[in-house]
Amino acid sequence: MLQSLFLFFTLSGIPIAVAMAGASLVYVLYTGNLPSFVVIHRMISGIDSFPLLAVPFFILAGNLMNNAGITNRIFQIATGLVGWLRGGLGHVNVLASVIFSGMSGTAIADAAGLGTIEIKAMKDQGYSTEFAVGVTAASATLGPIIPPSLPVVIYAMLANVSVGGMFLGGIVPGILIAVLIMMTVSFFAWRNGWGGDVAFNWGVWGKSLLEVVIVLGWPALMWVLVDQGSPPRTTVFIGLALLFLADWRFKFVAVMPMMTPILLIGGMTVGLFTPTEGAIAACLWAMVLGLFWYRSMSFKRFIKICVETIETTSVVMFIVAASSIFSWLLTAEGVTAQVTGWILGVTNDATFFLLLANALMLLVGCFLEPVAAITIMVPILVPVAQQLGIDPMHFGLVMILNLMIGLLTPPVGLVLFIMSRISGLSLERTMVALLPWFIPLLLSLAVITYVPSLVLWLPGLMR
Length: 463
Known about the structure:
Strand content: under 5%
Shape: globular
Structural class: mainly alpha
Number of helices: 24
Radius of gyration: 22 Å
Helix content: over 70%
Distance between the termini: 45 Å
Largest sheet: none
């Protein structure tokens, strides 16, 4: 009955969070087995969690980076690095998304923030609108895969796995997805005879490469110093001071913004802060850059960003709260146990289960937004995966990638709608433009699903 009520409310066009909470309330009132106040009690308990404090701070950090003029800097350094390749701005688009993913943590922020700049630049350079839309949408899926990631925080809390471990686990899959998308760009460039979009310049390329080397080398240096007995906090503060000095002296384009994921992952790895505290650190870093270092964001704009963050956080946390009572009732009524028994009755093979799970998650991703889908599917699928010996960290990345692909599909694909609005294409033409880009995404999904070491290798090194 609970599932039927939820399906009825959802098909009626009611928002997903209201559908879950409403179905739960009607079910409790109808059965009379529980007092009605248990609905509110379980909803409050569902969001009374320390790890969930990271959610508003990661949303705020992404909004700050997205509104502090960072996107233009990222696009500039990506152009210097790969803009001279054949199909140049297509490669720039992907590389810029990789960098921005380490700041925003959401596909929607990537699509809306970088998408406007990237699509306009590609159209001005003579690329078709369809190609620009396709590569922008495909690369936007990297947002929640490369850390930090809002969906990862939600999944890790629900599945009781390490947030930091899952952050590390998303790095290699994110790189794999980016490489496959760039290979697709190269194919289009070869087929259409495209050249580079900027002339190769040793000076520009060398300075851009130096910025990347600094970003990658900085944590290695900090690690060596800490390993030699230097206090972690003192080492990081001195390292940041030197970084600010170098940036002021040599006028780097995007070293400071690119340090966001490095500081986050590095701080958690050396025990400087927890993932929740890391989200706060990311906000402070974004505020320092936007308000004081680059001075690209006014205090008035900062207040507006905070209000937008409150609105987004309210929506996300309401979904989590509603899914908490819905999932609890599913478990209490034995639905999850029945689903587990049914799946294990169909197959005891982990390979076949992953195939079935991928098909289900791709379908669910077409109809539910990622946070809602995660909160519903984790209590149903994760126990089965664990019984079959599948690492929940690996399964989590597979789930999140499935749901990111769902953002590109109708009827509720938010990235699909954003691309249509930004580009001016109809939804039908936007959907057709995205079709070729499902090939690298689905290929990435297959590899990540059946090669778990891609996800588990880095977390294993840090244990």
